Amino acid sequence: MLTVALPKGALLKDSIRLFQAAGLDFSAFLDSSNRQLQIPDPTGRAQALLVRTQDVPVYVEYGQAQLGVAGYDVLKEKQPKVAQLRDLSFGFCRMSVAVPDSSPYRSAAELPPYSRVASKFVNCAREYFDRLDIPVEIIPLYGSVELGPITGMSEAIVDLVSTGRTLKENGLVELEVLYESTARLIAHPLSYRLNTDGVQDWVGRL
Predict the structure, then answer these.
(1) Any residues with CB less than 8 A from the CB of 31 and at least 6 apart, and which?
(2) I need a surface site. Which of 21, 35, 50, 99 has the fewest CB within 10 A?
(3) What percent of the chain has pLDDT over 90?
(4) For residue 151, what pLDDT is reported?
(5) Whether residue 169 is found in the same domain as residue 106
(6) What is the CATH number of the domain that holds 72?
(7) Is 152 helix (H, G, I), strand (E, B) or coil?
């Protein structure tokens, strides 16, 4: 049976809509009274797992799911051994550097050496500042990253930005965009190559 890893949160509705168009219905995950984390398609041809966005590529890489939907931001940060098959053109956001409105710096290149940068995307942040040849201290935060500059713990942040509203409401201004991110269809490489559980056929429908 085909197993699909679906992400909790912002990408879930569009992901379910995508699979519905291909003939698989996992809409039970949208029922707020449903607490199941694994559900079958009503036809019995497939099942889906509901997992944290960051965990989708882990389930696919280790073969617990043949297909999954994950943001490019997660894939770039984690570098999992999965096959990226399609840009699904939803879940648009961008990875950006931001500083407080009161900061004298108006580009990432102006940040002084050994500045502190808060981010949950530690690898992406480090790679970006390495490219700029600016040594910085990356502070890993996994909650509200905006609190880093607000409390004075960091001079800047690297975080996902969608509308920019959260930054504005917390007195932060966007300096640079590292890259843009959308949802991607991913597959377990061996399962895809061997067409396990008809995975190539489902990819064709998707």
Answers:
(1) none
(2) 35
(3) 97
(4) 95
(5) yes
(6) 3.40.190.10
(7) coil
Rounded-to-integer distance, Cα 194 and Cα 2, Å: 13
Q: 136 with 115: CB under 8 angstroms?
A: yes
Name residue 67's beta-bridge partners: 4, 187
* CA 161 vs CA 12, 19, 24, 148, 169: distances in Å: 18, 26, 31, 16, 13
Q: Domain limits at 72?
A: 2-91+182-205
Is the separation of the CB atoms in 4 and 200 below 8 Å? no
Task: Tokens for 67, please give them.
Answer: 């297909």
- The answer to whether residues 51 and 102 belong to one domain is no
Instruction: Read off the pLDDT of residues 188-205 as tens digits, 9 standing for 90 and up.
Output: 999 999 998 899 999 999
CB crowding 145-162: b at 16 or more within 10 Å, else e: bbebbeeeebbbbbbbbe
Both 82 and 135 in one domain: the answer is: no
